Amino acid sequence: MTASPDLRPGPVPMIGAPRQASPDLLRSVFRRHAAGVAVVTAHGDRPVGFTATSLNSVAADPPLVSFGVGTTSSSWPVLAEAEHIGVHILGDHQQELAATFARSGADRFGEGTRWSVGPEGVPVLDGVLAWLVCRVVARVPAGDHRIVIAQAVAGDPDGAGRPLLYHHGRFNALRD
């Protein structure tokens, strides 16, 4: 019979005192989480879009993605009705574009934004690392947000560059 190895943990690292869960605690914790930066677009009576760091791949078959959007967002009324949306993965050369789509009241599709009408009439941004046009399949209530689940119908993964990241309240690039 062989003795089993001692699986007791070593010294416990010092951790801070736990705080009661709150919106501020959640924001503070997720500032430590580096996330890729995407812009989600849609078209109703006008093109809309917003910067998202909550983009997730949900399934490969069928190809599903999800993201969260606040119901107080200026984009929400259009997204709430849109049948199709665009998902754009931004490159580290697109910090200003990310900031424009994150800024409340900004003219997101104004003179500084290069875009064209893509499949299903969705605004597709130029110069991104990759993009998808997706058909919305669900909008799930989640507090003051909705989780949108959408199935990819078209896209292009072949843009040049490195991804833009969001960490600790700032846009960042990958470092080697």
TrEMBL record:
Source species, domain of life: Bacteria
InterPro entries: Flavin_Rdtase-like_dom, NADH-dep_flavin_reductase, Split_barrel_FMN-bd
SUPFAM superfamilies for the chain: FMN-binding split barrel
Residues annotated as domain Flavin reductase like: 30-173
Record EC number: 1.-.-.-
Keywords: Oxidoreductase
Alphabetized GO MF terms: oxidoreductase activity
Name of the protein in question: Flavin reductase family protein
Organism listed in the record: Streptomyces exfoliatus (Streptomyces hydrogenans)
